[in-house]
Structure to design on (465 residues):
């Protein structure tokens, strides 16, 4: 048995051919209560029983922020908060898709009349994420069955805990099961990551990988290209506490996230150009590292040598790369970032390279203190170099450290959302009590919903009534 503060990497034993587990309807307990609520919603709206239930967890990223889309590995874990779908096939002569939500005031019902639908986040709202998952299955069958789906979510939206990706993953798995299509967990992780591009998101795949590949009791070290996961046994005495900053940010509805993706790509392409590498083939930071066969430390030196601090105008970048603005839009940017005229390159790439280093150190660290130091360094980099924190997140991190946390950091996309802090089991009650009395002292709602300890949960599964 590992002692306190010791992290152990173990082979997960998961086959690339494994499919999401199908389990029977629970007889009692919290899972039964959870499913009964969604079942009753489905009955009340559609007048019959659902055929299947799908449960997909949210996630908290422990280390490795904004590096998955740059090609580097991450270390998240699935959490108890989840998205649950209850679904059934619908009459062939009716609408293609009916969606209802357990919170209709915030997420109104929506009907999609036929299979020839387009997706608009502005028009469809929450349902756009469901439609992304449905569309991901379209190419795998001649014609999808009509469906009726009831949705209940306990992952707070805009919290940085992957509520939107969980919706996409749940939709993909539900649509596949209703249509008797079999995908492995790895296939679903890859497919659901690509689905979010239907609404213009250029994510890296972390959220979808942990949603399908998580194992109860373990965090996951996730590597990309190809997708590979390894279980990470967390220190025996360690507890991760999630606290909401009470500032929400929906990454798909603003440009900051995609702008960071573009800045990292442009920084890599500028270095490639200056090093005589064909730059148009460089899409991620890891691409330029591999093309030059350099270590992360050597990459940091190249960043310092070839990129200046501060902003570059779009015109300057075009001049360096010797392209027109139209060519730059086509090669380096997506539709959501064509309008951006100023980019920060050196600081963004510095965060990515240093964060990739921190992930590697995290996996070798043997003490809770050392893990905490890496988390705090990650937050400082997110706030300073990536400018992806928020004053409320910074304040919550500061108060968490004052309350005795070994480390704390903003988690998820950032610009609000949640902070994750590392403490010990013997200090947990006092730690939470102090945050209740400081950051959450004037919070009018249930503090347990915005401040809670979390342990690693299982990934997505299907429930058969």
């Amino acid at each position: 048995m590992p002692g306190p503060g010791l992290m152990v990497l173990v082979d997960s034993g998961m086959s690339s051919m494994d499919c999401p587990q199908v389990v029977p309807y629970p007889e009692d307990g919290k899972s039964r209560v959870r499913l009964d609520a969604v079942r009753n919603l489905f009955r009340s709206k559609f007048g019959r029983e659902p055929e299947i239930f799908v449960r997909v967890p949210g996630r908290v990223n422990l280390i490795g922020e904004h590096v998955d889309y740059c090609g580097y590995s991450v270390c998240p874990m699935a959490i108890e908060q989840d998205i649950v779908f209850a679904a059934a096939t619908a009459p062939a002569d009716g609408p293609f898709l009916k969606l209802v939500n357990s919170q209709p005031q915030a997420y109104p019902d929506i009907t999609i009349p036929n299979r020839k639908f387009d997706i608009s986040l502005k028009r469809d709202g929450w349902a756009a994420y469901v439609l992304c998952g449905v569309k991901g299955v379209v190419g795998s069958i001649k014609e999808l069955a009509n469906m009726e789906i009831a949705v209940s979510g306990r992952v707070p939206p805009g919290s940085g805990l992957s509520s939107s990706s969980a919706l996409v993953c749940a939709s993909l798995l539900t649509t596949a099961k209703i249509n008797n299509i079999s995908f492995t967990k790895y296939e679903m992780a890859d497919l659901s990551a690509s689905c979010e591009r239907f609404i213009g998101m250029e994510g890296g795949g972390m959220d979808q990988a942990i949603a399908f590949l998580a194992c109860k009791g373990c965090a996951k070290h996730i590597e990309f290209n190809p997708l590979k996961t390894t279980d990470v046994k967390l220190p025996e005495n360690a507890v991760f506490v999630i606290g909401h900053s009470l500032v929400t940010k929906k990454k798909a509805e603003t440009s900051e996230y995609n702008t960071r993706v573009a800045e990292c790509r442009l920084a890599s392409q500028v270095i490639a150009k200056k090093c005589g590498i064909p730059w148009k083939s460089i899409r991620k930071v890891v691409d330029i590292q591999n093309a030059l066969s350099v270590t992360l430390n050597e990459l940091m030196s190249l960043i310092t040598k070839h990129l200046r601090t501060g902003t570059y105008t779009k015109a300057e970048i075009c001049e360096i790369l010797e392209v027109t603005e139209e060519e730059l839009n086509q090669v380096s940017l997506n539709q959501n970032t064509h309008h951006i005229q100023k980019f920060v390159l050196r600081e963004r790439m510095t965060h990515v390279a240093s964060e990739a280093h921190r992930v590697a150190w995290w996996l070798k660290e043997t003490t809770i203190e050392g893990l905490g130091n890496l988390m705090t360094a990650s937050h400082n980099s997110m706030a300073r170099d990536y400018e992806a924190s928020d004053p409320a997140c910074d304040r919550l991190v500061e108060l968490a450290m004052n309350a005795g946390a070994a480390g704390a950091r903003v988690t998820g996309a950032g610009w609000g959302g949640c902070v994750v802090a590392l403490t010990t089991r013997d200090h947990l009650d006092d730690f939470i009590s102090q945050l209740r009395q400081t950051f959450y002292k004037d919070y009018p709602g249930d503090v347990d919903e915005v401040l809670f300890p979390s342990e690693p949960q299982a990934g997505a599964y299907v429930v058969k009534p």
In short: Residues 158 and 248 are 5 Å apart (CA to CA). The first strand starts at residue 8 and ends at 10. The chain has three domains: 8-235+457-464, 241-252+365-454, 253-349. The chain has a mean pLDDT of 93.
